[in-house]
Amino acid sequence: MTHILETKAITKRFGGLVAVDSVDLQVSKGEIRGLIGPNGSGKSTLLNLISGVYPLDGGDIFLNGESVSKLSPHERAEKGIARTFQNNRLFPSLSILDNIMVGMHARTKSELHHTLFRHKMTKLEEESCRKKALDIMKFVGLKRGADYTAGALPHGERRLLEIARGLALEPQIILLDEPATGMNPAEKEWMIELTRNIRNTGITVILIEHNMRVVMEVCDRITVLNFGRKIAEGNPQEIQTNPEVIEAYLGEEEPEDVIAG
Amino acid sequence: MGFVYALSAMGIVLIYRTAGVVNFAQGSLVMLGAYVATSCIETLKLPMIGAIIAAVIIMAGVGAVFQRVAYYPLRYAGIIPVVISTIGVSVFLNNGVYVIWGTYPKFLPPIAGSGTITIFGTSIPLQNIAIALMAVALLFFQAYFFNKTWLGKKMQAVAQHQDTAALMGIKVSRMITFTFMYSTALAAIAGIFAGPIFFVSPGIAQILSKAFAASVVGGFGSVPGAVVGGIFVGLVETFGAYFISSAYRDAWAFGLLILFLLFRPQGIFGEPISEKV
Amino acid sequence: MAPKNAKTFTLIAAGVVLLFLPKFIPSNYQMTVINLGGIYMILAAGLNVILGFTGLMSFTQVAFWGIGSYTAGLLAVEHGFPFLLTVPAAAFLTAAVGFLLGLPSLRKLKKFYLAVTTIGFVHITRLILENWTSLTRGADGLPGIPKPAIGPLRFDTMHEFYYITLISCFLLIWLTAVIKNSRVGRAMQAIREDDLAAEVMGVNVFKYKVLAFTISAFYGGLGGALYAHLVGYISPDIFTFEEAVTVLCMLMIGGSGLIAGPVVGATLLTVIPEWLRFMQEYNAIIYGAAVVVMAVYMPTGLVGLTQPYWRRLAVLFSSAKKNGGTG
Asked: Most C CBs within 10 Å: which of B29, B32, B84, B201, as the mutation test of the C interface?
């Protein structure tokens, strides 16, 4: 069986600190993979390495068996790796529609000369993008007008918009960095359902989440990191009973709802 | 000349390190410092040393006001809005001095008179020696201030890590105000040095560009870098003009700047230039 | 759709007024001022693409203006090129310079370094214009640049030239609107808002930064060429850092990132100083103060005031967040 995403011994150092230490990861197509670990265990750094935000210090990353380690972030996006950010990085003064349409950038082709000379492609592209964007809004459950400014949205809807923007890329895999943080219970329920819906459209999901209930409920498999190393991997039952995992979380504050930044 | 650049660059770098913003009004503050010193001598009839002290104190006050008006309301707004508001301040000052001091350039007497001294057959103006001595003294004072005094240490702490400093109970915004005051006081001294070289006119404000060149050459964000960069830019300018062509006098400084930006953007004392996510 | 009709009506009325404006303005001097205002508008529109859309601090607009002016001036004076050739030649040559300057300076440098690089470039351009006497005639300047002529049409007076300015401004401002609402414009604005997020969403950030820089150079060069033909005499001391700041003030006061921003800013900063001539020495002070007030209280400029409240709120919010994100 081929893996959609595979990392081999990837490593990242910040000064003397090894944030991600020789991590191997194999994610199968269509799975929802949970990524958990105490604060500072290197989860977000791992996502930053996969999406190309940080350069690797060692190891290799493969998408569908093809190395993407040397590609820049936008090239990896074109290959089909989408992501959201832990601390929410929308384009705040653009509208909801424009945010989503930026996500379609890699899937569209109109350059300036097409636009200037009123190329037919541009018009068709703009129209189909707008339609697709509205569909995506519906899919993630954004009910507001498409012209609403992203920066004025309440927190929960911003997280949804970020996911919508990622989906607009038509990715093969989407990396969600703590999407449910700061959401109210109803929104969390919806988040669980949405994650499943995304998977059902054929997109693989990697999910970082502090809320154990969400993780245990939605993930097919879970990878646990501690101090930058992978300490366990398995299905939710295996992880819940794994002594090493319990030890890693021992002495930690209750991981439920640690609200970052 | 190098020392004037160095002092101006130092002011820019200190504010950058503490507040994370780039002050485009530093050149205008240097100019204002020169005007204020001139008035202290001409109008208040203060002796040279008194005028210097008075100018430094007045300019520190200006720094506090400047901080309150152009930086404080924008402290969360990122770098570009602050750049624009400091540019606004510089436009305001460069033209405001005409209203107060008139359009004729003023004359600020050299702090050490106009004599020269002959060393190894070269005559050197006393003024240059005085500038060099004062600059060195200032560097020593600064090293002492930042490493040995409580206030200096707190300012350092804020510059290095604002959040941690705040957790340690340091009043960050007050330290930022002090840094602005300190930087404008430096500007006053730079102005007093520059006054006799240029005449006191809004033209002085143009050293802003050289000060930027100096701070980039030295390594933006590094205080020793600003000093070394300033002196380096001054030397390159002087020697370039002397040995190659004086027509391109200003071009040497900017040529140097461009070379550094292309090949060593982190400068001599470089801090890493890539932004952390 | 009453508001839309009202808007269309206002635009048509404005168009008619603009078309017949020279009839109401007898003075040659005032017409010159209006033409210059138009050229500033073009420069500010170019700055709008790089600063307003893409969020990059650049002072090069004035250097591009100089390069464009000299290209057009020299081609016309030394080689007798007609107006219809000098203007595009100047615009494209300047765009090429912008492209070449953008390549090294836009790759991975912090925003602030670009500002410093462009300041250096402004000074170096002026020094080259001043000292490369065999090409530019140095500090004496270049006199005798002919007034434009297109076929049998001649534009000898300021009143006639006005139509060239009007058409150029209209086309170039319209072009910024087209860019802003295109895929490319969205990419640029995404870079302004958050360049890392844009990159991760598949936007080739470097490519669009260079493109924005090249477009702003094109505007600068074109404005410069028109300027050369308008005033007939150019010299290096026109293209100073202070002029770069003036253009910046226009954009900021009008409204950065908004299509009408350069129009309002350039108009105001051209007209108001003429009204306030009796207090000339205070003009620049007022600019300065206005820029500070704008930066602090109205980051979207005067045009921004016409936008719905929540949109302004979002802008304020976004600027607040940017710093908070590092904490």
From this structure: B84
Residue B139 · residue B186 · CB < 8 Å: no
Angle between helix C261-275 and C158-180 (nearest 10) = 150
Nearest CB to B73: which of C252, C289, C296?
C296
Chain A partners within 8 Å of C55 (Cβ): none
Residue B226 has pLDDT above 70, yes or no: yes
Name chain A contacts of B277, Cβ cutoff 8 Å: 48, 53-54
pTM recorded for the entire structure: 0.85
* Average pLDDT rounded to a whole number, residues B48-69: 87
- Cα A229 from chain centre: 20
Cα-only R_g, chain A: 19
Kindly determine whether residue A261 and residue C327, on different chains, have CB atoms separated by under 8 Å: yes
**Same-domain check for residues A188 and A110:** no
The stretch B89-96 carries a mean pLDDT of 86
Q: How far apart are CA B195 and CA B208, in angstroms?
A: 15
Compute the count of residue pairs across chains B and C with CB atoms less than 8 Å apart. Answer: 150
pLDDT digits (tens, 9 = 90+) for A122-177: 888 888 999 999 999 999 999 888 888 888 888 889 999 999 999 999 999 999 99
pLDDT in tens, C146-155: 888 887 888 8
Domain finish residue from A136, A170, A204: A170
C7 at interface of B, judged by CB pairs closer than 8 A? no
The domain of A209 spans 1-80+172-261
Tens-place pLDDT, residues B102-131: 777 777 777 666 666 666 666 667 777 777
Q: In what order do the strands lie in the sheet with A204-208?
A: A81-83, A173-177, A204-208, A32-36, A221-226, A229-234
A180/A164 same-domain check: no
Written as six digits, the tokens of A164 are: 């919508």
Task: Quickly count: other Cβ atoms within 10 Å of residue A22's Cβ.
Answer: 15
